[in-house]
Amino acid sequence: MIVGIPGETASGETRVAITPPVAKKLVGRDVSVCVTSGAGEGSDWSDEAYRDVGCDVVDDRETVFERADVICQIRGLGTNEDEPMDPYREGQIVVGTLGPYDLDDEVYDELADRQVSAFTLELMPRISRAQSMDVLSSMASIGGYKAALVAAEQLPKLFPLEMTAAGTVRPADVFVIGAGVAGLKAIATAERLGASVKGYDIRLEVKQEVESLGADFVELDLETEGSGDDEGYAVEMGEEFYEQQRKELGRVVPESDVVITTAAIPGAPAPELVSAEMIEGMDDGSVVVDLSAPTGGNCEPTVAGETVEHAGVTVFGPTNLPATVPHTASQLFANNLYNFLDHLLDDGELVLDTDDEIVDATLLTHDGTIRRPHEDGGETDDEDDATDEDEEPVEDEADA
Ligand code: NAI
Questions:
Q1: Which partner for 380 in 48, 105, 133, 371 could form a disulfide, CB atoms 3.0-4.6 Å apart?
Q2: Catalytic annotation, residues
Q3: Atom of ligand 1 nearest to the CA of 271
């Protein structure tokens, strides 16, 4: 079996799906690895490093697509508008983040026609045996960390309390909305930098986690029953609820120096929780980092991929913070991907058992059939129509 790494072509993408240490593990399992020259350049992995572990380094992506049985990408199809329909060939297996909710019907049809088995890792179920394959959590953790650093860098105030001969400076007030993976990492990072941190989430069960990081949990006067599903994800609430939530948040946002928003609902647009008016109430020089920018943003003035000024407040709408930490992001992504391949590998071949929960949740097209995800996320919906689709530290040894 040949695993191919064509390299990334999406704008601003610096990561690579498989690093040399992970390629080495695959080669050790009798899998051949074929990589486009320069694929690892953006994340500081040289062609030499791939060759040293037994990979075949080729000049162009087309050769990788031609040769490989399994294509490994970070961004393909729905997550790479520069190259919507990659040259996937008949019967190929594709693994990556493919943006299942952004894929056109024609793309699903085309993949099914070509008998492509397309796995999208965003739909990995949040169950304990799939934790090691969960790329969204790995990337969100980096995003949360970097969001706190971006805010600290921009804010014209120090994060920590300073008691000096020149006077005492009180710590910056940081408010993190949404305490999932990204939010908790943003809280932990802002705490480590010495800020006075508050966290809030619609799911009250995260209160303890927020407090265990040293932050205060903000409780709003809201009826939150029915705000979570069985898998622990938040569900979309009605506009009336969000209106009430904005009213309550309006008490906390204006008194913050930094607001980091991460509220997300799988498969749905991000809820708008912070109004322009709330931001207008913040001091000049304050900073907002809206991690939900790629799915519409949690803040009214957010523009995805841009940094805007609103009433003296800088509002960041980053769309790919993990790509600003490309080496670590690639290590984590590649480790997740390896764990996924390892789950399917049997005697040097990938075995696709659609009765397996992990396969079932992540497989978009297979055997000419489209298995489209439900709009509310998570599960797949078999359309039997053949014509239609913890933070474990990363140690070098773990990579080897
Ligand atoms: P997650 O699903 O672990 O956490 C989202 C949190 O938002 C959950 O705890 C949920 O309960 C909460 N939430 C949902 N609706 C809410 C509401 N109305 N009020 C308060 N809290 C609410 O997601 P994760 O992995 O932490 O990612 C968060 C967001 O950050 C996602 O949209 C993800 O795509 C994005 N992200 C963005 C990056 C970037 O560079 N912009 C990098 C990495 C992640």
A1: 371
A2: 126, 131, 134, 137, 233
A3: 18
pLDDT in tens, 98-157: 999 888 899 999 999 999 999 999 999 989 999 999 999 999 999 999 999 999 999 999
Claim to verify: residue 187 and residue 310 sit in the same structural domain: yes
Mean pLDDT over 258-269 rounds to 93
Residue 160 C-alpha to ligand 1 middle, in angstroms? 26
Q: Is residue 387 part of a domain?
A: no
CB of residue 181 inside a 6 A radius of ligand 1: yes
Q: How far apart, in whole angstroms, are the C-alpha atoms of residue 103 and residue 78?
A: 5
Co-location of 357 and 255 in the same domain: no
390 in any annotated domain: no
Pocket probe mutation, ligand 1, options 201, 241, 307, 336, max atoms within 8 Å of Cβ:
201
Pair 80, 333: CB distance under 8 Å: no
Q: Are the C-beta atoms of 388 and 370 separated by less than 8 Å?
A: yes
Q: 349 and 206, same structural domain?
A: no
On whether both 363 and 217 belong to a single domain, the answer is: no
What is the span of the domain harbouring residue 98?
2-134+326-378
Residues 144 and 258 in one domain: yes
Model confidence at 375, pLDDT cuts 50, 70, 90, reads very low
Mean pLDDT of 229-242: 83
Q: How far, in Å, is the centroid of ligand 1 from the Cα of 178?
A: 6
| CATH code for the domain in which residue 40 is found | 3.40.50.720
Does 82 lie in the same domain as 200? no
Bridging pattern class, strands 117-120 and 363-366: antiparallel
Counting atoms of ligand 1 from 1, which one is nearest the CA of 319?
41
Q: Which of 291, 302, 332 to mutate to test the pocket of ligand 1 (most atoms within 8 A of CB)?
A: 291
Distance (angstroms) between ligand 1 centre and the Cα of 88 equals 31
If asked whether residues 86 and 67 sit together in one domain, one would say yes
3 DSSP assignment: E
Q: Is the CB of 125 under 6 A from ligand 1?
A: no
**Domains of the chain: total:** 2
Position 373 scores a pLDDT of 67
Given pLDDT bands bounded at 50, 70 and 90, which one contains residue 398? Answer: very low
Whole-number Å distance between alpha carbons of 330 and 43: 7
Q: What is the DSSP letter of 57?
A: E
332 occurs within a structural domain = yes
321 CB under 6 A from ligand 1?
A: yes
151-182 b/e with 16+ CB inside 10 Å = b?
bbebbebebeeeeeeeeeeebbbbbbbbbbbb
- For ligand 1, whether the C-beta of 182 sits within 6 Å is yes
